[in-house]
Structure formats: C-alpha cells, structure tokens
Design goal:
Length: about 300
C-alpha cells in the first residue's frame, strides 16, 4: 500500500507540473502575439490567476449547491456521524462537515479547499444500501481524499483548466484583433509566421490537453484514495465490497453532472460505455480498483 501511495503521488506531481508548464507557455504565446513582451507575460498570468482565485475558495459551497446537498444533523444521521468522526480520528484530520443528497442512487464525494474546511457528502441511497464495513470503506476513501489533500489538488486542477481555457480564448481573440499583423510587421524573415501557426495550434489544442491531464490526475488520485482508505480501516475487503455494490447499481444520480462527476467515488452518470467514452472517464475501471484492493 505504501508503494502504491508513493507511486501515485509522484505521478500526480509530474502531471500537475506539466499542467503549470502548459499555462506558462500559453501566457508566453499570448504576450508575444499581443506585442507585450515579458511584462505582458506577467500581466496575463496575474489576471488569469486572479479571475480564478474566488472560484477556488468558494468551490465547496458551489459544489454543494450544484449537487442539491443539505447539512446532515447528528440527530437525523447518527450512524453517519459515528463513522465519519471515528475515521477522522484515525486519519488525524479535523472531522469534516457531513452533508447528504436525497437520492436513492448510492454515491459519495468530498470537497473543500483544505482539511479544516472539508465536507463529506453521501446520498441517502448509500446509507440505505451499505452495511457498516462497506460504509466505513466508502467514508475512508473520501477521508483519504481529504488527508492526502486530493480535494485541494482537484480544485487547483479545475482552476488551472479554467486558466488554460481563458488564455486560449485570449490568444484566439488576439489573432482577430490584429496579432497576425503585429507579428508580420515585426518579423519579415518568416519566423513570425511560424510563431503565428504555433500560437494557433496551442490555442486550439490546449483545452483538450488540459482535459486529458485533469482526467489522468483524477484517475490516479482514485487509486491513491483506495489504498489510503484501506490503511485507515485495515480492512480492504470492506471498500472492495462497497465498490462491487456501486458497480452493480445502475441508477444514475440525478443531481450529478459532468462538472462534478470527478468528485464522486464512482462515476455517478452511469453512461460510460465504449472505448472512447472510457478514455474521457474521470474514474479508473472499478474492476481494476477492486483487483488492487483484493491484492492487499
């Protein structure tokens, strides 16, 4: 388990590093196309980050509102609170706030930009369909997302995707506003034309590249959370059994959408079929996750 955790952390770090490099390249291309130089590069980066700053700190409230989640009181859901508080002690993190989604489809997710401001949200269907060991397995998975700072990582990833999309849009608008003429007038040797083509290709492909990076990070963090959750409960079979039940349940979660699907323990849309759709899935195949847990 420790080897799997270390491997996934290294791979996730490399993916995020590449993501940051992509943002820097886009900002550089934009600054050159607009004729702003190095100062323009700094300005472009500052504006892009500033626009996303508010979204980062309000991500938990936005996610809960989109998901139609409501606070879970200890009086109404003592069973859930008992599991969450016990696993929070085992993980060494503050007990997250508990929320529920009134839906019979079983699922769960964690959100928040820090362990001190974290939330674990489960559906009422999950509470109804899981036994104690399985519920502990699911909650330990989400608690691991909090302990491993996955919720912060995924929030940052979504913010970086927003920055990439914003910079790509600016590059395209710069073409329309005369960036082509600026480069042509500044460089008669043909290098300007090459840079123009490179900038256009980057603007067109970067959002797609960013999405692939987001999906790769999400899939790696799911494997890591499974391994970490097994360490918290010392009972991998509980989470494996829960995943089998979640895989067999074909009911889609009505409150979920493509923007929040990556947060859940399993894909809540239940429509990932075919090789192409699986390529764009935010979750690794459940059978692979179960196989890894069975080996533990």
């Amino acid at each position: 388990m420790y080897e799997q955790i270390a491997s996934n952390k290294r791979k996730s770090f490399l993916l995020v590093t590449f993501f940051l490099g992509l943002i820097f390249v886009l900002a550089y291309v934009l600054a050159e196309l607009a004729g702003m130089g190095n100062g323009g590069l700094v300005v472009a980066l500052l504006i892009a980050v500033g626009i996303s700053f508010a979204s980062y700190y309000g991500s938990d409230n936005i996610t809960l509102a989109i998901s139609h989640a409501r606070p879970a009181t200890k009086e109404e859901f003592p069973y859930l609170y008992n599991v969450v508080e016990g696993l929070a002690i085992a993980a060494g993190v503050p007990a997250p706030r508990c929320y529920v989604i009134d839906d019979t489809a079983p699922n769960a997710f964690a959100t928040g930009h820090s362990p001190k401001n974290s939330v674990i949200c489960v559906t009422t269907g999950l509470l109804q369909k899981m036994n104690r060991a399985e519920l502990e397995g699911v909650v330990s998975h989400e608690m691991s997302h909090i302990k491993n700072l996955d919720i912060r990582l995924m929030t940052l990833t979504v913010v970086m995707i927003g920055i990439v999309a914003l910079l790509s849009d600016w590059i395209m608008r710069t073409f329309m506003w005369g960036g082509r003429r600026k480069i042509g007038g500044r460089d008669k040797s043909g290098a300007g034309a090459i840079f123009l083509i490179v900038g256009l290709v980057m603007a067109l492909l970067s959002p797609l590249i960013a999405q692939f990076i987001r999906l790769a990070i999400s899939r790696k963090r799911e494997f890591l959370a499974d391994a970490s959750g097994a360490m918290l409960t010392r009972y991998p079979a509980g989470l494996a059994s829960a995943l089998r039940k979640l895989e067999d349940d074909t009911e889609p979660l009505e409150a979920a959408n493509k923007a929040t699907a990556h947060l859940y323990i399993v894909n809540p849309l239940k429509n990932i079929k075919g090789a192409v759709n699986k390529l764009f899935s935010t979750h690794p195949p459940i059978e692979e996750r179960i196989a890894a847990l069975d080996k533990m």
